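Figure S7 source data.
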Amino acid sequence: FERKKILVLGAGYAGLQTVVKLQKLVSVQDCEITLINKNSYHYESTWLHETAAGTINYEQGIYPITSVIDASKVKFVPAEVTAIDKDNQTVNTTQGEFSFDYLVMALGFESETFGITGMDEHAMSITNVESARKIKQHIEERFAHYSESEVKDPNDLKIIVGGAGFTGVELLGELAERVPELCSQYNVNAEDVKLICIEAAPKMLPMFSEELVNYAVNALESKGVEFKLATPIVAANEQGFVVKENDEEKTIEANTAIWTAGVRGNALMDTSFDGVKRGRIIVEDDLSIEGYPNIFVIGDCSAVMNGEGENARPYPTTAQIAMQQGDHLAKNLKAVLDGDKTSKFNYDEKGTVCSLGPNDAVGHVMGKDLQGKKASFMKKVIDTRAIYKIGGPLLAYKKGKVL
Ligand code: FAD
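Tokens for the predicted flavin-adenine dinucleotide complex:
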């Protein structure tokens, strides 16, 4: 009797949730579980805007993967996945080749710049801990440069954010909080700092009611954020973003440009499977891939369809759906090992909270609109719950935001 090999790629919300649940459901004799992840730590992707703005230290949002896995059942390999061969059932990594009977792909998201000229080269984006730390460091360097220069460059104190979606707004909330701190640290006049958000659509945060959107705009504007809606960015260059305003192109200059307006699934999905759009694979009911009942995809690399036929649209990719998928997939893997049938994944959408800084937020949770301190508290509960679900009470106490 040979133990089945389960290979899990990625230890974000989706992959790690699968593993911590599965290790509780199976015994050592049932299967051999291997988890592969680029870093030896897990990071809270939903906190990366705080690391980028510098309102939290990056270490608060990470923990060692080995601290939450049961080493008797799961082998952890820190390595980068470089290729997936679905037909030969092998995965190549920087630590060699791995074969599998069952594969779980949970390699998360990347920035999507939609081919906008110069965006990849000239703007920074928030995709992982390193990129978030780079933004923090870059902003500090610009403030330091301004402060030390005899001839001041006002663009050193200008931060432009492309996109007024969820990530853009959350980032602006943290930046608005950080600016006064930076001003006192580098002896800079707060009025000289400019935080500008540029968005192509005429409206922001489409998932929220008009009242909540107005609340968010007022809260951020009162802290100095300037919004330019209905202003598409057509290029990025060394000066800043080139935008279209009243059919004319003009450059909004800044020495810090951050792109938050697009995410896609991991590019390895496009190179390993056919017909993949922006790194996301439409899943079957049980989270497997069409034609490959032994290969599963979850988290930001997956597309779970909502609705039937022509009207079907994928659910937005979130940590919330990623964790629920991980939970469900662990049960399906156990079923497969037991020779039972897998079951359908049903998403239970509980709501969304968008932070506007450390103590303010807007949200729609369990059918109710929330704003201000209440919404902010709810956000901290959600952040802490994600840690609790994977690491239990001790980790939630150490890393969480409400205990
Ligand atoms: P990830 O969290 O991206 O994890 C993927 C893992 O795979 C990482 O550990 C990565 O290092 C690893 N990996 C990637 N490539 C390789 C490779 N080649 N080899 C080995 N390992 C690799 N969602 C919400 O529900 N609520 C929120 O409030 C919210 N806020 C957000 C705020 C920000 C600033 C951002 C950026 C996102 C936010 N999201 C939020 C979305 C959420 O973070 C993602 O949907 C979620 O992280 C997806 O989880 P995942 O497990 O699929 O991927």
